[in-house]
Amino acid sequence: MLSRITRGLLAVFAVAVVLLGGESAQAQTYSPYPDGSILINSAVSSDRYVIAGGAKFSIPASEQPYFSNWLFTYNVSSSTLSGITDYPQEGTKLKERNLDTI
Questions:
Q1: How many other β-carbons are positioned within 10 Å of the β-carbon of residue 5?
Q2: Is the C-alpha dihedral spanning 23, 24, 28, 29 positive or negative?
Q3: From CA 62, how far away is CA 53, in angstroms rounded?
Q4: Where are the domains of the chain?
């Protein structure tokens, strides 16, 4: 029979595994690519992202012609993309192309 402390530790461990997604979980970090960079998924070339505030933002296919900065375009793997956070650094502001407001 397990002691109360052992059961408690096992419960905490089980919660940690669920929250972290198991061993395959990868911590997301800010992008090593400069803001304004375009990242193209090398596995699915139609998947494109723009970097802003260290985070990646998906570019819809209808908007991709407006993002043709080939100087800062990189082909990256799916695992590289999954390692870049979706949440920008505090203070990052984005503006939609058709709107005057930020």
A1: 8
A2: positive
A3: 23
A4: 26-82
Read off the tokens for 32. Answer: 């090593």
- Residue the block writes with tokens 């002691």: 3
Q: What sign results for the dihedral spanned by CA atoms 67, 73, 78, 80? A: negative
Encode 72-102 in three state secondary structure.
HEEEECHHHHHCECCCCCCCCCCCCCCCCCC
pLDDT of residue 10: 39
The pLDDT score that the predictor gives to residue 9 is: 38
Tokens 């100087």 — which residue? 71
3-state secondary structure 20-78: HCCCCCCCCECCCCCCCCEEEECCCCCCEEEEECCEEEECCHHHHHHCCCHHHEEEECH
Whole-number pLDDT of residue 37: 92
At 42-97, the pLDDT tens digits run 888 889 999 999 999 999 999 888 887 777 899 999 999 999 999 999 999 888 87
Which of the pair, 95 or 5, is modelled with greater confidence? 95
